[in-house]
Amino acid sequence: MGKRGQKHTKKAATGGPPSDPLDILGSLIRPIAPNKRHELNQLVDKLFELASNFGHDAVTPKQLWEEHLKIRALGLRATRDIAQSELVIAIPRKVIMSVDTARQSEMGRLIEKDAMLQTMNNVTLALHLLLEKTSPASFWEPYINTLPPSYHTVLYYTEEEFNALKGSPAYLDALKQYKFVARQYAYFYKKFQSTMLKDYFTFDEYRWAVSTVMTRQNQIPSGEDPQKVVNALVPFWDMANHENGTISTDFDTEGDVVKCMAFRNFKSGEPFRIFYGERNNHDLLVHNGFVFPDNRFNSLQIRLGISKNDPLAQDKYDMLSRLVISPQGQFVIGKDADQPFDQLLLAFLRVMCLQSQDEIDLWSHEDKIRDLLNPEADPDLDNKVFQYMKTRCDLLLKSYPTSLEEDEKALQNVDLPATLKSCVILRQGEKMVLKNAIAYCAQKLQ
Q: Which residues of the chain have pLDDT under 70?
């Protein structure tokens, strides 16, 4: 990797290269002083100088920086009017950190020998980032030093913050996320015990690297095999925050560059944002550490399954298989008060509510089974569906330790920490989804 790679090659030639890939990685580590943080703008300027050295005619990041955007804290802000569809950010592959660059680095030999790194791209990228952070004269040092020192992801949650998620499906998912990352850390901690890495590979450093990847990663075509995609960190582009809109970022394979266009008009002085995709607040909080109060894609995840004790279970499994629906899994209740249940959820509920072999035989017929996916099927069957969902949503609503009124009061507290505020907004949005679903079911039952 450029000068850094040449430097390490020379060092290895005089001192003799370590035989084990873990020893190679350990020899690159050095501690970072706590005050090693430069001014954000200076570091971004450095990054752009690196990018401009590649002579990519189609990309002028320095110019885009000066004409379009200016960094303000943890986001981007337009310094002039930007028109919809206008090219705003363009970042060449050569300054992008990815699983490809991990394989090409000193870490490559470790990846070849480690099953986890071969199958989990996000873990590979997180470890790659952490090793680059502690490497002397890393190519990505200017970029790494622009990254936040900590995050609001669930990996930083206290017991109080986890408890604030109780009642929400996000509670268990957040705990699982923490558990998975802790297990990953334990796995690599044991692996690195015989190397210099053991002195610097702390859980705090690892959760920082994982949080960086969770909140900022994207997928781009692999430079080694364009038919595959790899996880990547795209400098500068990843500073753009989220807003409802449309996807406006793409990878230009001809120019080998990430291009981001404005999905709407932006006025001078206005924050420049991008759309992260159709994700509910549950997903945004567990994986990105924030929620979006006006998220038009918000929903509530609900786990349903056909009981194995149901005497008609096997017939119902067969019907669901023909509809390509899992007999056990997560379904979504949408925020749309006029139609909170999609066709997959309705079909599952209808199959679940079948109570006799005659009903099974009727709805299993080749000409009939697809009707289970329609907005309306049989009135008697749908009455059972809506009665079940009304009862289920009532119980889910009561499982939250706080009421909507208490949530609203909590949000009026100006001193409420950002993480707890996100938890309250998440609960509030999920309760509204449930109340809408209950009202919808009651209307249908009338």
A: 1-74
